[in-house]
UniProtKB/TrEMBL annotation, chain A:
Residues 1-36 are annotated as: Disordered. The lineage of its organism: Bacteria, Bacillati, Actinomycetota, Actinomycetes, Kitasatosporales. Residues 21-35 have a biased composition (Gly residues). The keyword Isomerase does not apply. Residues 1-11 have a biased composition (Low complexity). It comes from the Bacteria. The keyword Membrane applies. This is ABC transporter permease. It comes from Streptomyces diacarni. Pfam families: BPD_transp_1. Residues 99-313 form the ABC transmembrane type-1 domain. GO terms for cellular component: plasma membrane.
Length: 323, 432
């Protein structure tokens, strides 16, 4: 190989780096173009509906909640903004356990979703052939039923004396989970396992779909190239397929973890007071205790903690240089 | 490494992609599999790479049976059609991929050397998407060559490049192959690419190799209409064998009729004296062609269908197979006569006496004259074929040769070939 001379004359040069004219200044034709002045406003008109929607249903409530979270007073005397930041520390002190439990359950459910969803997405993307669309529809099919109904159905499935409990009990699976502290008293309902299972079930499609879409984009000739270059099937997955599916992994885990952290339906229907998540606590403060400032402070705390965790995660995942 | 395919075949469901195929690729050769898309050439290559399991047959690499070896265990590397560079790895890591998989610890030096070879050393840290098509192509080549495979497989490696770059890379690939001495098996649908680079070309059609040989032999002596049309251009017209053996027979009458159109545009009388010098069979000017009717051993004479024109060609260039009821080359057998456009010379009828007496000759009228730069392309209407294509080098063009002009066409019998008429005369014409 050393005897080889360099390839002769290579006229083409690498593509020039993107010039500064990015999409940022894309609001209409540049100076000197002969477009009508009205056309310069077109992008803003197009943004208007979404902007209004966000302003009315997101920004305004956000500010309202922010102000609520630093109010003090009572329902009878009325709440006033007194910049009472102790609402936050009090909420954290009283419900720290709920926060931890929420993130623990959500993280466990996310990992389970990944473990269950990745092989499925892989099969759909590379092996399903003509069944691909059918399987995709089956993945999405649960969405045709309401979230609440589906969770209620799980309540029936996992009910005491039901077939699932019976089967797992006779297989001594419940003994193991009980020993792990996930279940107790020979039952599934009102255990952490039930809540995590409910979360996993409910958010699985949010994991599968982004995974599928990133796997499906991978050119299968890359697999062949890897195998041609002495990679075993396992190495091919480790070095080529998985790195290339990372955008889907990141999107799927975020789409699962974030809503699961704030979920309270699963804990409400499948758990007991011992499995209450932060969502349950917020709901209770808002609707039962009517302590709006504490509820608002907890909402903001949840939002802030999720933001912190997500940005740390994104930074970690970003080092892989996502394609 | 010599590659030996014995009875190798591949079927996908009901479709047979490759019929049982026997092929030997000699060590160190540049071997091209040429054919239109869907002819089975890529499937054959993929079976060599191990990416496709053969339905039957065996593949030997040297003396080793690699038929059922998975791709990662074969000492064979591939340059893929779309390059298949790993988008998440930079150029250096792409090139190092094969070495790393084989547990080579320090790859840096070899990678740098390889990248210098393909003149991409300064782009080692770029990602593939930041490179142009030609650069990506060279990364793909470097990534395969760095493993020093016994055989390098190239699947339409230049298909995505523009014409100029493709020509340049053709020469580069050929040079690299000569220097490393690795056996190259190259799949392409581009006949020019195959002819430029390969020592040996196998033309594939509908899952079979229909002719195999050095490019010049395939081009000069096609044995089927598919090869005649797929490799370059051929003029094919129907004819009938007159005398397979060297039996003498004057062609005067035939020649006369064949030349009739010429008379309109030339002064036949003026020609007569010169022509008369030759031992003419008959008194007319046109008949002078008949003087060449003297039999040459090993030549076959044929009569063009629909016109009384007799042509001659070496019997060895008659690809007419024996079938039931008909021996190969025998009298009355229908054939297709072929001649390459660049073999034909065009003359103004006024200069027809310059035609060598031994040449095949036709007359016609120019329908269209196209300027191609290096050559002129003429479409000539003749009794033998209504659209005879002729390429004339763009050196000294007779300005009288314009559309509508009468012309005399002539070429050497040795440039004529004959094919079995029982095949589609237009096979292989559809250009991809």
């Amino acid at each position: 190989m050393t005897a080889l001379a360099p390839l002769a004359g290579t006229p083409e040069t690498p593509p020039a780096p993107e010039s500064g004219a990015g999409p940022g200044d894309g609001a209409g034709p540049g100076p000197g173009s002969s477009g009508r002045p009205g056309r310069r406003l077109t992008p803003y008109w197009l943004l208007l509906p979404a902007g209004l929607w966000l302003a009315v249903f997101f920004v305004a409530p956000l500010f309202y909640q922010a102000s609520t979270s630093v109010q003090s007073g009572s329902l009878e005397e009325g709440f006033r903004v007194t910049w009472q930041f102790s609402n936050y520390s009090d909420a954290l002190a009283a419900y720290g356990e709920h926060f931890l439990r929420s993130f623990g359950y959500a993280a466990t459910a996310t990992v389970l979703c990944l473990v269950i969803g990745y092989p499925l997405a892989y099969m759909i993307a590379f092996r399903a052939g003509r069944w691909r669309n059918l399987v995709l529809v089956m993945v999405i099919a649960p969405f045709f039923t309401s979230f609440l109904i589906r969770t209620l159905a799980w309540k029936t499935i996992l009910s005491d004396g039901g077939p699932v409990v019976g089967a797992l009990s006779s297989l001594h699976v419940l003994d193991v989970t009980s020993w792990l502290g996930l279940t107790g008293d020979e039952r599934l309902l009102a255990t952490p396992l039930a809540v995590v299972c409910g979360l996993t079930y409910n958010f699985l499609p949010f994991m599968i779909l982004p995974l599928y879409s990133s796997l499906e984009r991978i050119d299968t000739s890359l697999h062949e190239a890897a195998r041609d270059l002495y990679a075993t099937p396992a190495t091919t997955f480790r070095k080529v397929t998985f790195p290339l599916s990372l955008p889907g992994v990141v999107a799927g885990t975020l789409l699962t973890f974030i809503p699961a952290s704030g979920d309270y339906i699963n804990a409400q229907l499948l758990g007991s007071p011992n499995e209450q998540m932060v969502g349950n606590a917020i709901q209770k403060q808002f609707l039962n205790v009517l302590d709006y400032p504490t509820a608002a402070a907890m909402s903001f705390l949840l939002m802030a903690l999720i933001l912190i965790m997500v940005s740390v995660y994104m930074r970690k995942a970003g080092t892989e240089e996502l394609v | 490494m010599t590659i030996t395919l014995s009875g190798i075949s591949k079927t996908f469901g009901d479709i047979t992609a490759v019929h049982p195929l026997d092929l030997t690729v000699p060590e160190g050769s540049f071997f091209a599999l040429l054919g239109a898309s869907g002819c089975g050439k890529t499937t054959t290559l993929r079976m060599l790479a191990g990416l496709e399991e053969p339905t039957g047959g065996t593949i030997l690499l040297g003396d080793d049976d690699i038929t059922h070896l998975p791709p990662h265990k074969r000492p064979v590397n591939t340059v893929f059609q779309n390059y298949a560079l790993f988008p998440h790895l930079d150029i250096a890591e792409n090139v190092a991929f094969g070495l790393r998989r084989r547990g080579v610890k320090s790859v840096r030096e070899q990678v740098a050397e390889m990248l210098d070879l393909v003149q991409l050393g300064d782009l080692a840290r770029r990602k593939p998407r930041q490179l142009s098509g030609g650069q990506q192509q060279r990364v793909a080549l470097a990534r395969a060559l760095i493993n020093r495979p016994r055989v390098l497989l190239l699947d339409e490696p230049l298909g995505a490049l523009d014409l100029k770059l493709r020509r340049q890379m053709q020469l580069e690939l050929k040079r690299i192959q000569t220097e490393v001495g690795i056996t190259f098996v190259h799949v392409t649908h581009d006949q020019e690419e195959a002819m430029t680079m390969a020592d040996s070309v196998a033309v594939m059609h509908r899952g079979r190799v229909i002719q195999l040989g050095p490019p010049a032999e395939l081009y000069e002596n096609p044995r089927s209409t598919f090869v005649a049309n797929f490799l370059g251009t051929s003029n094919l017209f129907e004819a009938e064998i007159l005398s397979p053996q060297s039996t003498l027979g004057p062609r005067a009458e035939a020649a006369e009729k064949g030349l009739k159109p010429v008379e309109a545009g030339m002064s036949a009388e003026g020609e007569t004296p010169e022509r008369a010098e030759t031992p003419a069979v008959a008194g007319t000017a046109e008949v002078s062609e008949g003087t060449s009717a003297a039999e040459v051993p090993g030549e076959t004479r044929v009569k063009v269908a629909g016109a009384d024109v007799t042509l001659r060609l070496p019997t060895s260039r008659c690809a007419v197979e024996s079938v039931e009821g008909a021996e190969g080359v025998e009298e009355g057998r229908k054939i297709l006569v072929g001649v390459r456009p660049e073999k034909i010379a065009l003359l103004h009828p006024g200069e027809a006496e310059a035609v060598p007496a031994t040449d095949n000759q036709l007359t016609g009228r120019i329908k269209d004259a196209g300027y191609l730069g290096v050559s002129w392309q003429y479409l000539v209407e003749t009794p033998a074929c209504s659209d005879l294509t002729v390429y004339e080098q763009n050196v000294e063009r007779d300005t009288r040769l314009t559309a509508g002009a009468d012309v005399v066409l002539h070429w050497r019998p040795a440039h004529t070939f004959a094919l079995d008429a029982a095949q589609d005369a237009a096979a292989g014409e559809e250009v991809l």
